[in-house]
């Protein structure tokens, strides 16, 4: 009996300490990384999307970018269409003005664009609806500076900068265009 007591005690201690100190525990946090599409990250889904001009959102960070409004997921209409940023792996969907120019005119832009130039290009892209295969993923963005070490040992004014708070940002990766 004594022979099994210490190993059993060790196993129980290890399980309890793993539950309490394990990596899945985030102290003082109620944040959960969640998908916007209600499918696990990395799952290819069929989407009906509309191209949106980021400037229309009146957010400085989205000016000059194109985003997508998701209308359907796997042929099921979204309760409320929502907008997401995207990365294009298909080569079919420009994410900003210069890549739209290259897609439309088949050459690199050699100068900046006037507002009229942008409006002309957008006629062929913004507001159009497409059916695509895509998957949701994400990344951490911002500057994490909430650790005790940073607060006590690092010169905080040097770290202060205009940036987004440290957070997880979801986005879509477009794999292929199925049809317009």
UniProtKB/TrEMBL annotation:
Q: What species is given as this protein's source?
A: Chryseobacterium gambrini
Q: Which domain of life is it from?
A: Bacteria
What is the official name of this protein in its record? Uncharacterized protein
């Amino acid at each position: 009996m004594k022979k099994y007591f210490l190993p059993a005690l060790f196993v129980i201690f290890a399980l309890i300490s793993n539950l309490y100190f394990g990596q899945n525990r985030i102290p003082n946090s109620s944040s959960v990384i969640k998908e916007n599409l209600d499918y696990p990250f990395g799952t290819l889904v069929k989407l009906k999307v509309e191209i949106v001009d980021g400037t229309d959102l009146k957010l400085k960070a989205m000016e000059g970018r194109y985003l997508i409004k998701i209308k359907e997921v796997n042929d099921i209409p979204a309760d409320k269409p929502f907008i997401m940023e995207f990365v294009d792996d298909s080569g079919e969907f420009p994410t900003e003005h210069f890549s739209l120019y290259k897609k439309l005119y088949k050459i690199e832009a050699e100068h900046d664009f006037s507002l009229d130039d942008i409006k002309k290009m957008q006629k062929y892209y913004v507001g159009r609806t497409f059916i695509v295969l895509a998957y949701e993923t994400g990344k951490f963005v911002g500057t994490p500076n909430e650790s005790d070490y940073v607060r006590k040992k690092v010169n905080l004014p040097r770290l202060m900068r205009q940036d987004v708070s440290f957070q997880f940002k979801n986005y879509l990766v477009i794999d292929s265009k199925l049809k317009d």
